[in-house]
Amino acid sequence: MKYKRILLKLSGEALMGNKGFGIDQERLLEYANEIKSIYDEGCEVAIVIGGGNIFRGIQAEKGGMDRVHGDYMGMLATVINSMAIQSALEGLGVSTRLQSAIKMEQICEPFIRRKAVRHLEKGRVVIFGAGTGNPYFTTDTAATLRAIEIEASVILKGTRVDGIYTADPEKDNTATKYETIKFKEVYDKGLEVMDMTAFTLCKENNLPIIVFDMNKKGNLKNIILGHKIGTLVEV
Ligand code: GTP
Predict the structure, then answer these.
(1) Is the separation of the CB atoms in 5 and 43 below 8 Å?
(2) CA 33-160-213 angle, 5° bins
(3) What does pTM read for this prediction?
(4) Model pLDDT, residue 58
(5) Residue 15 predicted with pLDDT over 90
(6) Number of domains making up the chain
């Protein structure tokens, strides 16, 4: 196994499947099965999921809502998605723990780094909810921060596209995919991988990122086994 401990970042929108809102149970189960496949290999798995399928702070701000208020609502949305993933995984017999950056004792544990690491060592999938617990930070940043804290060897960003391209492949048919790319090149070329806060955190802490297509069955397992899937961003 190439990666012993990983942090998987999923977008909330991905959970919608073909629906316009909320959680598509079929998609949820597909993702849970993909996660189980690496859990069964003995990989230590932490997960951060966004909340955009339920609430988007930035759009609410455009509609006149206070940004901070909107961001907190977005954080709560990530807890809902985290609970959904937790339930789906446990339905498949995968042991999990959910920790939230905002305390909600009745629902889950509070985020405690040392406890999270212990859970991973004991073979539990750890899901981190409520982002960083602070407004103005994205779930990509939360994912990066948690990945660094738990000393994950890589952050796996599951998306709808199969990697990073020289240009937008949906608009430019000459666009080609990078197999690997340096952090500096991503900066210099202005390519979008994550927001700059998240991206800089990865770079400064030497945390590689793999951007890959989460909707393709087997990708996740192939990555942890060391196959070249998606695009690897490294120092
Ligand atoms: P170890 O003691 O390391 O084996 O971990 P553990 O998670 O099994 O022990 P613990 O007794 O802390 O937790 C037992 C169960 O209670 C687990 O499902 C936890 O997720 C859950 N739990 C622990 N703390 C909290 C909390 O503050 N709130 C909620 N809602 N659940 C909690």
Answers:
(1) yes
(2) 55
(3) 0.96
(4) 82
(5) yes
(6) 1
Q: Where are the alpha helices (DSSP H) in 92-156?
A: 113-121, 139-149
5 in contact with ligand 1, CB cutoff 6 A: no
Domain coverage including residue 125: 5-234
| Per-residue pLDDT at 169 exceeds 90 | no
CA 46 to chain centre: 9
Are 111 and 104 within 8 A, CB to CB? no
Encoded tokens for 181: 């790319």
How many other CB atoms are there within 10 angstroms of residue 194's CB atom? 23
Task: State which H helix or E strand residue 198 sits in.
Answer: helix 196-204
Ligand 1 center to residue 97 CA distance, Å?
A: 8
Take atom 25 of ligand 1 and give the residue whose Cα is closest.
Answer: 109
Q: Going by CA atoms, what residue is nearest to atom 20 of ligand 1?
A: 97
Residue 113: give its domain's CATH number: 3.40.1160.10
Q: What are φ and ψ of residue 37, in 5° steps?
A: -60, -30
Comparing C-alpha atoms, which of 193, 208, 203, 143 is closest to residue 163?
193
